[in-house]
Specification:
The chain has one helix at about 35-40; strands at about 15-20, 25-30, 50, 55, 70-75, 75-80, 90-95. It is mainly beta and about 110 residues long. The structure holds FE2/S2 (inorganic) cluster.
Length: about 110
């Protein structure tokens, strides 16, 4: 269940509505949003947990630098949600704990 969002859409963003699925639940986004922006706007602030302590993390820099937005997107682990544009039907899941050897190595 999402928390109330601390983020507000700018009034000039009027892209077509698209639906992605986060942990199996529908999230309405706007064409042109990144997956991370869409989830934050919908109140989903936690998108992964850390490898050692399981501490919750969420998108921070929104420009591909911090890696706190790692998610599983359409079955591919360790994708940076802030770098992936939304699309209808995307399936997004939280990353939990340490990655397995080879996870995401094929992602450019
Ligand atoms: S939010 Fe920092 S890399 Fe995506």
């Amino acid at each position: 269940m999402p928390n109330a969002s601390s983020f507000t859409r700018l009034p000039d963003r009027r892209g077509r509505a698209v639906t992605l699925y986060f942990e199996g639940e529908p999230v309405t986004a706007r064409e042109g949003d990144s997956v991370a922006a869409a989830l934050l706007a919908a109140g989903h602030a936690v998108t992964r947990t850390t490898a050692v302590l399981g501490t919750p993390r969420g998108p921070f820099c929104m420009m591909g630098v911090c890696f706190d937005c790692l998610m599983e997107i359409d079955g591919q682990p360790n994708r940076q949600g802030c770098m992936v544009p939304v699309a209808d039907g995307l399936q997004v899941r939280r990353m939990a704990g340490a990655r397995s050897p080879g996870d995401g190595d094929d992602v450019v």
